[in-house]
Amino acid sequence: MNNRYIDYNQLLMANHYQAPLSLMRLAINQAAATAGVRSLEGYDEILSDLAEPILESAARFAGEVLSPLNSVGDRNPSRCEPRGVVTPPGFVEAYRRFREDGWASLAAPAEYGGQGLPTLVSAAVTEMWGGANLSFAMCPELTVGALEAMRVHASAQLNDEYAPRLASGDWATAMCLTEPQSGSDLSTLRTRAEPDGDAWRLFGRKIYISWGDHDLTDNIVHFVLARTPDAPPGLRGISLFLVPKKVPSATGTLEKNDIDAVSLEHKMGIRASPTCVMVLGEHGGARGWLIGRLNDGLGCMFTMMNHMRLGVGLHSLGLAERSLQLARVHARERLQGRDAAGAQRRIIEHADVRRMLLMMKSLTQAARGLAYTAAATLDVAHSAEGDDGQRTAAARRVDLLTPVVKAWCSDVGVEVASLGVQVHGGMGYVDDAEISQVYRDARIGPIFEGTNYIQAQDLLGRKVIRDKGAALGELLADIEKAAEELPAVVAHPLAHLRSGLVDGCWRLRKATASLIEQSAREPDLIGAAACHFLNWLAVLAGGWQLALSARQAALEFDATAARAVVDLAAFYATHVLPRVYTHEAAVTQGTQCVTALTADL
Amino acid sequence: MNNRYIDYNQLLMANHYQAPLSLMRLAINQAAATAGVRSLEGYDEILSDLAEPILESAARFAGEVLSPLNSVGDRNPSRCEPRGVVTPPGFVEAYRRFREDGWASLAAPAEYGGQGLPTLVSAAVTEMWGGANLSFAMCPELTVGALEAMRVHASAQLNDEYAPRLASGDWATAMCLTEPQSGSDLSTLRTRAEPDGDAWRLFGRKIYISWGDHDLTDNIVHFVLARTPDAPPGLRGISLFLVPKKVPSATGTLEKNDIDAVSLEHKMGIRASPTCVMVLGEHGGARGWLIGRLNDGLGCMFTMMNHMRLGVGLHSLGLAERSLQLARVHARERLQGRDAAGAQRRIIEHADVRRMLLMMKSLTQAARGLAYTAAATLDVAHSAEGDDGQRTAAARRVDLLTPVVKAWCSDVGVEVASLGVQVHGGMGYVDDAEISQVYRDARIGPIFEGTNYIQAQDLLGRKVIRDKGAALGELLADIEKAAEELPAVVAHPLAHLRSGLVDGCWRLRKATASLIEQSAREPDLIGAAACHFLNWLAVLAGGWQLALSARQAALEFDATAARAVVDLAAFYATHVLPRVYTHEAAVTQGTQCVTALTADL
Predict the structure, then answer these.
(1) What are the boundaries of each domain within chain A?
(2) Element (H, E) at B172
(3) Helix (H) or strand (E) run with residue A90 in it
(4) Is the pLDDT of residue A46 over 90?
(5) Using the 8-state DSSP alphabet, how is residue B179 labeled?
(6) Closest alpha carbon within chain A to B235
(7) DSSP character for A267?
(8) Nearest residue to B371 (alpha-carbon basis) of B338, B416, B332, B402
(9) In this structure, what are the phi and psi dihedrals at residue B488, rounded to the nearest 5 degrees?
């Protein structure tokens, strides 16, 4: 009689994703305060009255509908059949409920019939979807960014025809960027668009297209990067096209377009999410419509992509939270070792297991604070009111934070999932254990929607060096201010956090000034320093967020719960914040041995 | 036409494991010098004359026979059928050649008919097997430790009957420790052994038994931990039994014993390696013979286990090397971005890719030096000559290094494999890419043969605090000496390495003294500090090894190759060595918030 299987399966059945509502609320409130969103019209009411029931309903949907399908999807990946891509059992029904319950339209603009909820609230909901079922979550997330790109760049006619169907979730979207020869470097795109009356015909092959085909919706609207005849070479000759799977006619019928998924990738993780090879124009050309201006495709795509980057950060954060939950349940149930009185101990009582759980929880809450802060700041940047200076400052801050959120949260997702496996021991290495799926799923985060190096290069090159460190300086000033304003009651337990943040900011300012000065002379410097620079800033920003959490918890939580948050911040100060010294050494002393290397690797 | 698949498959076909012979030789020579093995009788001749052809033949076997089967095994995991476990296609034939070519007997003692090669040489060969095909490599590695346990603890009769068949590789071995309720904590073992004439009958269920059944050999000799009637409770009541799959009769026939694999785990990685649930005694009891003294089973098992821990370190190191090779080939082929003249660049020319490859290579060579040093020191400890003091000192050093090698090399294996995935981008996330298998395979290293926390606890509790830091002090003195004796020619490029090592050793000494003093009063301190303590020492020891590599390379390599090694050491000094500050903060300032934590996790 092998008890392990029985116990473990029972455990799993009772152990679906549970949204950490009180820590989410804490992060929402601290992000709202940091970004100053409550002064925007209607925002305070939304946070006070609407947010709570929305978060509670989303938590139920995530835990009861999406989470139980997560391992189903891993064991029964999407399949490419002659009639199209077939998703795992239960996904079609789950999506139907998702749409009917209004989740698809949550963040969609009101002008398209969406609910137009603030990004700050939808960010918490997005985290839940990612934590419960990343493969599923990726599909609706694509639409949120697509609608933003439509709103900003597409013609009124295209918007009329497509946006409401996207906003309702009736139709889905996909981003078609990558080609076999063209990944991080989009300048080598070959897919071509030829004029055809007032529209275009597209021909080419795209790979790694997430949710490029599926059976969740009647139609899928593809956003395709392609070159037109006589377009300039490189990045300046790329345009963005809307290419529907089925073209709606004037009478409302849908006519099959010349774009098909011809195969799926078999992947390490996110196996329910169909990663398609798409072929356009095998039968005369896929009908497409230009979005935005000719040859301005990258600009249009980045409106969409920036949203997706925040989405990757939030989903990764959800996976970190899920890893913590799985590890915590395991650590509470599993008996190993004995206490002084000879009784068996739950492994959560062992100091090293506590250390791992604290690491997981402190990284997760730090990442949550940072991602929500980016979301709240985006709401300010997009708001119709407020003075221009406030909106511009918010937009600058979002530009700075977006690559940090994408890269750091996805790295945190991988690190926390790996700790989750370790807490499980051998039980975490078998396919039965959901943590092993989470570990495999999390590994895509640092790769897709721009690798984490692409994020780091964007941060250091475009967001820091280009404005000579101005936006960064504003952020560091905020971090220093939070460190210096820690309430007296936590001044002692958080002494290391305070000194670490103040010292770390000072050092980062100094290093940044030096990088700005050197980068003009050393073309490879940004490449050699970027990843460590991003992580240096991220580790400081994470500490900032936990300082704010400790402060906010003193206002909102009872003494025990507030103390737990202070403990997380104190743990972070001694176990994570010192990583700044590694990043500093790599940035200030280590670029020479990367750029000057002449020897064979 | 999708070129990606064609190119990539062609690439894979030409891209089997290649043993890094010149860096292996370098590490062998520096380990031999550190441990002082050349003064042992016959050793110098072996290193000078025998080692080279052995390493070259092993490299061919690893690259031509084992490596091509690696992904085959991942795609066709071992299966449990009524007739027993069936290994993936090609494994039986590969093992036949492995045995016939003499690889099974390489490290087996001459008294059993083995070749009795020094551990230092077999360590490099073990690394190759792990790098080429970890699942396969695990099987013969078990026998090396088992023979050592037999030699030290088993009766002459058992040795006569079993050891020569194990030494030749005719029969295989398996270690049966874990039970559903009993993993890291073996005190709760329930498998029981009842006396039966001059032998025993065993009854129980064991899980996670690597290579517990298979079709590579006619017989499998299990080493089983069990309790006898009236044994004292806990760890002091456990004995070790030899339980063959088939019992040899006086006439040489083999009679089926009452031990069977009833199912296999489906795992994230090492899928070709059958991880068995074993049932003993369903039909009257499995016949077994006691090894060593009654109730001294843990001591006997640890003779075997200590060898396996070195083996895990070497295999993990092999995976790190393999990740580097896969990433390097990809980085040399893949074009993304353009140079100043507008030509497409191979991604190996991008600074951040170079940074990742340098990280992979410097960690791998540092880990190699450390693992080989442990192997060479083991040869001194086991040698028949030399004074007792030398042997005792060597044994003390091996005891200290073994947990560091197991834990750090396996963590390095995971870190380097993850970097390897990152260098591949999206192509590293699909099942076609061997790097995605290596990433999954590597994750078992920190878990099995004692989790890395068990290693850290062993290091800090038993190997450091118990002797009041004496053995550690000797090691730190060697590290400081190597730092201070860096040749003048590399003094400038390695200035950071020198100062980092000297400073890091000083700080670790101070922290150790404080831990020794505090640990008597604070029972949870070891648990809270152990993992960071181990990694602190490991990072310093890795730097030590690269300092020695730089010195050795100046003697052996031409100027270009020697410079490449110095570059690795310089990279390590600025990108890895500063991690000591994180470990120091956790050990010296961070244990309070782990042990004193009262709040709910």
Answers:
(1) 172-296, 462-595
(2) strand B171-176
(3) none
(4) yes
(5) B
(6) A337
(7) B
(8) B402
(9) -55, -35
Q: How far apart are CA A263 and CA A276, in angstroms?
A: 6
Give CA separation, A242 vs A1, A112, B289, B363, in Å: 59, 17, 74, 47
- Report chain B (601 residues): mean pLDDT per 10 consecutive residues: 40 77 97 94 91 97 97 98 97 98 95 95 98 98 95 96 97 96 90 96 98 98 97 95 96 95 98 98 98 95 93 98 97 89 90 96 98 97 84 96 98 98 97 96 97 97 97 98 91 94 98 96 93 98 97 93 94 98 96 74 75
Between CA B378 and CA B385 the distance in angstroms is 13
State the nearest Cα–Cα gap between B344 and chain A, in angstroms: 9
- Tell me whether residues A354 and B277 touch, CB distance under 8 A: no
What's domain B171-296's architecture? Beta Barrel (2.40)
CA distance B591 to A355: 9
Interface test with B, best of A593, A595, A598, A600 (most B CBs within 10 A): A593
Q: Specify the length of chain A in residues.
A: 601
The catalytic residue positions of A are 449
Burial of A281 (0-12, 13-18, 19+ CB in 10 A): buried
Pick from A426, A525, A528: CB nearest B208: A426
Using the CB atoms, write b or e for B94-107: b if 16+ within 10 Å. bbeebbebebbbbb
Instruction: Identify all chain A residues contacting B507, using CB atoms and an 8 Å cutoff.
Output: none
Candidates B182, B189, B263, B268, partner chain A, best to mutate (most A CBs within 10 A): B268
Report the residue from B354, B448, B600 with minimal CB separation from A426.
Answer: B448
Contact: B575, A585; criterion CB under 8 Å: yes
Interface test with A, best of B135, B574, B576 (most A CBs within 10 A): B574
Do the Cβ atoms of B578 and A574 come within 8 Å? no
C-alpha dist (Å) from residue A2 to A512, B279, B362, B554: 59, 10, 44, 58
- Which helix H or strand E contains A263, and what residues bound it? strand A259-264
Q: Which chain B residue shows the shortest CA-CA distance from A594?
A: B355
For B432, name the nearest residue in chain A, comparing CA atoms only. Answer: A266
Name which of A188, A336, A595 is nearest B351 (Cβ-Cβ).
A595
| A422 vs B350, B447, B577: nearest CB | B447
d(CA A592, CA B375): 35
Residues of A in contact with B184 (CB under 8 A): 336-337, 425
For domain A172-296, the CATH class is mainly beta
- Alpha-carbon distance of B281 to B193, in angstroms, equals 10
CB A328 within 8 A of CB A161: no
Contact A426 B447 (CB under 8 A): yes
Question: What burial letters (b/e) apply to A64-99, b meaning 16+ CB within 10 Å?
Answer: ebbbbbbbebbebbbebeeeebbbbebbeebbeebb
Task: Report residue B291 CA to chain centroid gap.
Answer: 25
All residues of chain A having their beta carbon less than 8 Å from the beta carbon of residue B422 are: 446-447, 451-453
CB contact under 8 A, A574 and B564: no
User: A600: pLDDT confidence band, cut at 50, 70 and 90?
Assistant: low
- Give the Cα separation of B347 and A497 in Å (integer): 39
Backbone Cα Rg of chain A = 24
Are the beta carbons of A574 and B581 separated by less than 8 Å?
no
Segments in A104-260 forming alpha helices (H):
119-132, 134-153, 156-167
Provide the token pair at A508.
């980062």
Residue of B nearest to A233 (CA): B342
- Closest by alpha carbon to B365, among B559, B569, B538? B569
How many angstroms separate the CA atoms of B206 and B225, rounded?
A: 9
Closest CA to A12 of A556, A428, A502, A308: A428
